[in-house]
Amino acid sequence: MSANIHGKMVYSFEKPMWHNITEPSLVPMTATGILQNRFGGGFPIILRPVEITLNGERTETGDFAIVRGKSPYDQKEVVFGYCSDRYLPLQPSDVCASYDANVKQTAETMAFLGKGEEMFISWKMPSCEVTSGDTVDMYGIVRTGFDTLKGARLFTSVVRPVCWNTITFAQSWAKQNTDGHGKGNIWKGKGVNKNLLRDLGYWMAHVQENALKEVELLQSFFGLLAKTPIKSDTEAYEILYEAFPPVQNVSEFYPVQLRTAKEEKTVEANLDITQIRDGIFRLFSGEGTAITPDYWGMLNSTSEYFCHVQASKRPIAESVMFGGRQKHSMQMVTTLSNRVR
């Protein structure tokens, strides 16, 4: 599984990263401090006029190339894309300065992805305690693209990003858990907005100012899960069937020559789903680690199953972060969320 980090431009406060590209910092740092002292000052984003040869003369087309200047890990300039004069790219240094001025918290993690076409900064919000000794951390995250495609996004997540996979997982969690009241996706903007940097700063400040309220909302949701008992094995399986329903046999809609193969695939898929339901149920029923007999315990059983129990022919971490395991885990989150509303 590739971390997709640009060079060694990744920072984590205190906690080690799975890819071990750099060592975690034991000293808290501002985003600007990280850019200058850990990332070699970063790099500029430059707009250069696009020229063509027209009637034997070099002529500007009116469009621009989005160029990443030399970076500490790549001395060659790179073109990220093309744009019109309406596009006003953010500068990494400006994003860092805005973060420091508006969030006013040291960064938890920070990284540049790919060839530098994206960056993210995360900060730790107040933790919420679901049950005694069982806490969930919430992170504020700004993810900024330096091409015309990705724009700038601000969201909250329980996933701590340290690479491309984890930032993708964090954003997926935000999408699945957006409630319109400060949890999940908060704001997004495009480079054609001449006030993009200003608005991003306003929204970062807003998110941080409302951090306690947001954590209260998240704690309320997880707390509600912990307060909702599962009273019988039958009820537990009802939840499992809602989250992981059987695949319907639709072979009758296929040509006669393909029906047998389709039926075999359906049977195989249902055997896999049955294995998932039974595996989670075993953990929930006593084989899991510190599992409580409630919705919170069912969520933790699901997480433990996909992270530590289910066998895999491929690297488990990849699937947990953005593959089938991640999708299955979110199915349980959605099911439980719908049942407690």
Describe the protein in words.
The chain is an alpha+beta fold. It has two domains: 5-41 and 88-215, no CATH class; 228-340, no CATH class. The chain is built from ten helices and eleven strands. The strands form three sheets. A six-stranded antiparallel β-sheet has the order 1-5-6-9-10-11, with helices on both faces. Strands 2-3-4 form a three-stranded antiparallel β-sheet, with no helix packed on it. Strands 7-8 form a two-stranded antiparallel ribbon. Strand 5 (109-113) and strand 6 (118-124) form a beta hairpin. The chain is globular. The two termini are 37 Å apart. The model is unreliable at 315-323 (pLDDT under 50).
User: How far apart are the termini?
Assistant: 37 Å
Averaging pLDDT over every residue, what do you get?
A: 88
Q: Determine the fraction of residues in helical runs and give it as a percent range.
A: 40-55%
Spell out the helices and strands N to C.
Answer: EHEEEHEEEEEEHEHHHHHHH
What ranges have pLDDT less than 50 throughout 5 or more consecutive residues? 315-323
Strand percentage: 15-25%
- For the record, the count of structural domains works out to 2
Could you give the order of strands across the largest sheet? 1-5-6-9-10-11
Main beta sheet: 6 strands, antiparallel
Output the structural class.
alpha+beta
Structural shape: globular
Please report the number of helical segments.
Answer: 10
The Cα radius of gyration reads 24 Å
Number of strands: 11
Quaternary structure type: single chain
